[in-house]
Specification:
By secondary structure, the protein is mainly alpha-helical. It contains five helices and two strands; from the N terminus they run H-E-H-H-E-H-H.
Length: 121
């Protein structure tokens, strides 16, 4: 993980200067909706989405383990985004993977919560 070691160096340098860092682990639209969509998709769509979800989970898990091992403050947004997706439209229906205002609101609220939890507010 060459890139990961670079990020650690940047975070150490920032924190040495009194700058707190919080890494956001932002899920894709597909991972947020996978648990809701898998039962309503066609077999072909479900197979493709499952492949993406499995790959993202593998990468996400490696990132989370790395951040934890390095003692880096982070915020995994997948649980809160999935919970909000149960009752709120977080992403547009078309292929754009960027959240709508409601999605960014969930992200902002989670950042605020995590900063308070870490005493960085």
């Amino acid at each position: 993980m060459v890139a990961a070691s670079w990020y650690v160096k940047v975070i150490i340098a920032a924190e040495a200067r009194g700058v707190a860092c919080l890494i956001l682990v932002i899920p894709t639209k597909e991972s947020v909706y996978w648990h809701l969509a898998r039962d309503v998709l066609s077999k072909e769509e479900r197979t493709e989405l499952e492949r993406l979800a499995v790959q993202e989970t593998l990468v996400r898990d490696k990132i989370l383990v790395f951040l934890e091992q390095e003692g880096i403050h982070f915020l995994d947004l997948l649980p809160s985004m999935r919970q909000a997706a149960e009752h709120t439209t977080l992403y547009p229906e078309h292929a754009d993977g960027h959240p709508l205002g409601a999605g960014y609101r969930v992200i902002a609220m989670e950042i605020q919560r995590r900063l308070q939890e870490l005493g960085l507010h």
